[in-house]
C-alpha cells in the first residue's frame, strides 16, 4: 500500500493495513541506527518543529533524534519560552510557524484533540506526540513493533494491560492497535481507574491481577499518573503496589517467557518491582530503541515518502 495521510493523529482512525505499513517501514529504518554513520538524506531540506506544551524527555528526544537521523532541520520550542506565555493562541502560533515555511509539527498538549484542531488549520503535517487522556499513537506503534519483534506476531497474543486506564492515552492507543491486529487484550486496575465504556473496545476487564496475567504473553504496566488525578482513586500507593504492582510472586501466573513492558518513566516498586523491571523478561529499553525507528517511519511517511516506491535511504 501507499501512505496517503498528511497527519498521524491517532491509532483509532488507522486500518490494520496502515498500522502494518508503518511497522514494516519502521523495521527497515531500525537498521540505520546500527550503521557507523547513523544518518540518511531522506528528509534533507525538510524543517520539523517539536512543539511541546507538556514536559517530556524520552518522546521529545526520540522525535528530535529521528528527525536528525533523516537529515531534517529541527526546531525545539518549549512553551515556557514562547509567545504562548504572552497570550498567543494556538492558531496564531501555528500560523507564525507556517509563515517560516516549516513542513511538520510534532505536538504534545494537555488538551485532548489539540493536534486534530491544529491539523485542520495548517498545511504542515501534524504528528500527535500525546494529547490529554486521548491518544499517544507513536507509543502504541513502538509497542506493537516490540511485541512483533519479540514474539513474531501480534494476532492471538495474550496481552494484560495493568494500571491507570482512566487517565492513560497510552493505554487507549494500545487497545486500539492490539484489537485491530487481533490480540487477546485483558485490562486490570482498581475499579475507579477503569472507564465504564472500556469493554466496548473489545477487551476483557479483570479486577484481580493474578487472573489477568494468567498465561499472558505480554504484561504491560501503565504508570500511575498522579499529576492527572484530581481525586483519590485508591487508598494509598502502598496498597496499590500490593494489589496491582507486578513482583516475582505475581509474575509466576504468567507464561515463563512473558515479556514485561512499560511506557516509562517507571514508578519503581509501585507498578513494577525493581528486580522485575531489570529482569530478562523486561523489554523496556528495547521499547525505547524501537521508538526511534517508529518515529523515523512516521516522519518519513507523513512527509510524503513511501518505502515501497522510493529508495532514498
Automatic annotation (TrEMBL):
A molecular function (GO) term: amino acid binding
Chain sites annotated for binding carbamoyl phosphate: 58-59, 108, 136, 139, 264-265
EC identifiers of the protein: 2.1.3.2
Alphabetic keyword roster: Pyrimidine biosynthesis, Transferase
Residue ranges constituting the Aspartate/ornithine carbamoyltransferase Asp/Orn-binding domain according to the UniProt record: 156-301
Gene3D superfamilies membership: Aspartate/ornithine carbamoyltransferase (3.40.50.1370)
Gene Ontology biological process terms, A to Z: 'de novo' pyrimidine nucleobase biosynthetic process; 'de novo' UMP biosynthetic process; amino acid metabolic process
Pathway(s) it belongs to: Pyrimidine metabolism; UMP biosynthesis via de novo pathway; (S)-dihydroorotate from bicarbonate: step 2/3
Residues engaged in binding L-aspartate: 86, 169, 223
Catalysed conversion reaction: carbamoyl phosphate + L-aspartate = N-carbamoyl-L-aspartate + phosphate + H(+)
PROSITE patterns assigned: CARBAMOYLTRANSFERASE (PS00097)
Pfam families: OTCace, OTCace_N
Enzyme class of the recorded protein, top EC level: transferase
GO cellular component, one term: cytosol
Domain Aspartate/ornithine carbamoyltransferase carbamoyl-P binding: 6-148
Family: Belongs to the aspartate/ornithine carbamoyltransferase superfamily. ATCase family.
Function (record text): Catalyzes the condensation of carbamoyl phosphate and aspartate to form carbamoyl aspartate and inorganic phosphate, the committed step in the de novo pyrimidine nucleotide biosynthesis pathway.
Assembly and oligomerization: Heterododecamer (2C3:3R2) of six catalytic PyrB chains organized as two trimers (C3), and six regulatory PyrI chains organized as three dimers (R2).
The protein, known as: Aspartate carbamoyltransferase
Amino acid at each position: 500500500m501507499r501512505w496517503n495521510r498528511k497527519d498521524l493523529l491517532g491509532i483509532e482512525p488507522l486500518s490494520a493495513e496502515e498500522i502494518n505499513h508503518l511497522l514494516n517501514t519502521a523495521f527497515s529504518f531500525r537498521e540505520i541506527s546500527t550503521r557507523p554513520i547513523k544518518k540518511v538524506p531522506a528528509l534533507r531540506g525538510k524543517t520539523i518543529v517539536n512543539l511541546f506544551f507538556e514536559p517530556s524527555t524520552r518522546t521529545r528526544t526520540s522525535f528530535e533524534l529521528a528527525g536528525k537521523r533523516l537529515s531534517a532541520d529541527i526546531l525545539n520550542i518549549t512553551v515556557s519560552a514562547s509567545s504562548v506565555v504572552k497570550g498567543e493562541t494556538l492558531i496564531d502560533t501555528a500560523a507564525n510557524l507556517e509563515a517560516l515555511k516549516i513542513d511538520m509539527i510534532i505536538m504534545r498538549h494537555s488538551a485532548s484533540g489539540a493536534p486534530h484542531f491544529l491539523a485542520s488549520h495548517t498545511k504542515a503535517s501534524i504528528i500527535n506526540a500525546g494529547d490529554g487522556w486521548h491518544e499517544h499513537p507513536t507509543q502504541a506503534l513502538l509497542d506493537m513493533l516490540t511485541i512483533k519483534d519479540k514474539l513474531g506476531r501480534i494476532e492471538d497474543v495474550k496481552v494484560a494491560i495493568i494500571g491507570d486506564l482512566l487517565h492513560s492515552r497510552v493505554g487507549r492507543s494500545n487497545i486500539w492497535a492490539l484489537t485491530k491486529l487481533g490480540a487477546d487484550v485483558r485490562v486490570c486496575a482498581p475499579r475507579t481507574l477503569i472507564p465504564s465504556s472500556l469493554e466496548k473496545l473489545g477487551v476483557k476487564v479483570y479486577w484481580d491481577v493474578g487472573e489477568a496475567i494468567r498465561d499472558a504473553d505480554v504484561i504491560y504496566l501503565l504508570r500511575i499518573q498522579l499529576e492527572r488525578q484530581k481525586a483519590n482513586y485508591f487508598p494509598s500507593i502502598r496498597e496499590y503496589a500490593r494489589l496491582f504492582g507486578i513482583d516475582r510472586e505475581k509474575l509466576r501466573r504468567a507464561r515463563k517467557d512473558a515479556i514485561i513492558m512499560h511506557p516509562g518513566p517507571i514508578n519503581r516498586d509501585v507498578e513494577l518491582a525493581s528486580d522485575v523491571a531489570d529482569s530478562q523478561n523486561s523489554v523496556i529499553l528495547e521499547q525505547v530503541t524501537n521508538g526511534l525507528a517508529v518515529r523515523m517511519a512516521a516522519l518519513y511517511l507523513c512527509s510524503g515518502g513511501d518505502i515501497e516506491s522510493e529508495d532514498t535511504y
